Amino acid sequence: MASPEVQEPYLGYADESRAHWVLIPTILFTILCPLLLAIRIYARRATTTLDRGDWISALALFFNLATNVMFFAMVRRGFGKHSDVIPKPDLFATLQIWFFGQITHKIALHLTKVSLLLLYVRIFSHVRAFRLTAMGLIYFIILYMISSTIVGICQCIPVASAWDLDIRGKCLNLYIIWNMNGVVSLATDVIILILPFPLVFGLHIPMSQKLALMPVFGLGVFIVVASALRVQSLLVSRVTDRTFDIIGTLWTIIEYNLAFICLCLPSVRVLLVRTWPQVFKSSVGRSQTSGVTPGAGYVRSGTGGVRTWPIKIELETRHWSRVRDSPGLDGSDSTDEILSPVEEGAAAREEGATRPEAAGITRTVRYDVDFEPVTPPAPVATGMGRADRPQD
């Protein structure tokens, strides 16, 4: 209800609301993000052990859900309506929740980027230049997260004047802060997007297989688009009604939730391939098995880093008893999956190849191969000697 002293500029002004801009995506992402993280953790535990990237993604989900809950609370207090028709206690409560929501949003978004970069580091750890670049970007994102959080908290002095309009305080220019944060976020999104592509195109594999890997590393396109639209919405419109002009808030919700979804989707694909290998098959697995003859096996060598490709070993005269995948020097699993081993193994069986199931892209530190000794059988006589012939 509008206050008695407020005059409506036009009919329906007091009841006009954009709350659905916040509620619909927030409800959807609040259901979807925890589900995808559960699938990611399940898929990771089924193939290897959890690492710091997985724990950081869980921490990112915590701040993600905390931000979503705050948006729910804001809508209940009137967020989405015109600020001059919201009762003052509800308006101040909305602005206070929005203040803390900006902080949790920054933390959730930056932790998601750190977890994604750690995934890249794990896959391409043998490429020193890539590892140093990715780690440098991780440290930059962490430092920027800390600094932007401090600036967000201290945007007004005293701090309470940021939401309590009855308190006279000195505040920074929020328009400049929002645009600066948006531009930096967009820049890091673009760098994260293009970072792995030179290595993927540098793999010694056919072009068709490289194109098959593009969706795995190209999910960041959606994040870049959302981030660009958020920056564009901030640049073209100055917020005059903080509870009604919420187009920037809409793209903010989409940005950090979509980033988290893109972080989890590769693991979802691995689980889908393991569950339904006949449905989710790729050209990568099929093309790798072409030209394989029975009696040949494949192993992956760790000496070539990401450029390693299967080396054929003829085993027709030896028994291959077992292969031990040795852990890395840091104690971590020596193989990282991006493409599921099941889809490659299924494709190999279809073409009559005998090869162990291996991940589409792997980082292998060492393989120890044991061979059982083979004792050649005694020669078998094919004819009878002269002394054994019957006499005429």
Automatic annotation (TrEMBL):
Family matches, as InterPro entries: Rhodopsin_dom_fungi, SAT4-like
Compartmental location: Membrane
A single cellular component GO annotation: membrane
Domain Rhodopsin: 39-273
Transmembrane feature ranges: 20-43, 55-75, 107-125, 137-163, 175-199, 211-229, 249-272
Region (Disordered): 324-392
Keyword line: Membrane, Transmembrane, Transmembrane helix
Main location: membrane
Superkingdom to which the source organism belongs: Eukaryota
Membrane topology (UniProt): Multi-pass membrane protein
PANTHER family to which the protein is assigned, alphabetical: INTEGRAL MEMBRANE PROTEIN, PTH11-LIKE INTEGRAL MEMBRANE PROTEIN (AFU_ORTHOLOGUE AFUA_5G11245)
Family: Belongs to the SAT4 family.
Protein name: Rhodopsin domain-containing protein
Organism: Triangularia setosa
Top-level taxonomy: Eukaryota, Fungi, Dikarya, Ascomycota, Pezizomycotina
